[in-house]
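Case study.
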Amino acid sequence: DAGVIQSPRHEVTEMGQEVTLRCKPISGHNSLFWYRQTMMRGLELLIYFNNNVPIDDSGMPEDRFSAKMPNASFSTLKIQPSEPRDSAVYFCASSPPDSPRGPQHFGDGTRLSIL
Amino acid sequence: QKEVEQNSGPLSVPEGAIASLNCTYSDRGSQSFFWYRQYSGKSPELIMSIYSNGDKEDGRFTAQLNKASQYVSLLIRDSQPSDSATYLCAVNKGGSQGNLIFGKGTKLSVKP
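After joint prediction, the assembly is written out as follows.
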């Protein structure tokens, strides 16, 4: 089975531009997580969906960040406008319905650089 | 006090030795505890979960939990160079699945 699929793998863009990150969770998984990882702050949860509904978005830094999950097989994380401090690795993760309390399968991540 | 604390390392052990990785957490109401392994440039991989006090063994890995001391550890027996990675401790404070707090990780280096 395919794992969690993220695209793009790398993104380099100039500040002020809109950035869209994409994620396809594992089929049958009903929980989806977006994380951001930096050396300074480690791995931080941005938002968590359950059955396509946002449950906890308290980690979303500010209004420049938005996330959607229009169906069970697709989610996007959008940054508009982007800033250099948004540079990080962004991970999407998913979990099946009967999993313990946390993300079980991570995608390969999107390495984002904002110049 | 940080919610989940780990020594950043690097922790260096010789091949075949036992590697001991430690983690403390601040919220006494925490319910679930996880260890993830992350190779350089790769994504985290869930390797162990533990929910009750005591030890849980899975192959060469043993997770230990002491809720009274708010302490979680991971022991890796017969360490191999392929175990060299950063190990992330994660704690779920209860409530939703999203309520998972990660430590910054301990970098382990196993020398041949």
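Observations recorded in class. The two ends of chain B are 37 Å apart (CA to CA). Chain B touches chain A at residues 31-32, 34, 42-46, 49, 51, 88, 90, 92, 94, 96-100, 102-105 (CB under 8 Å). We will return to this complex in the next lecture.
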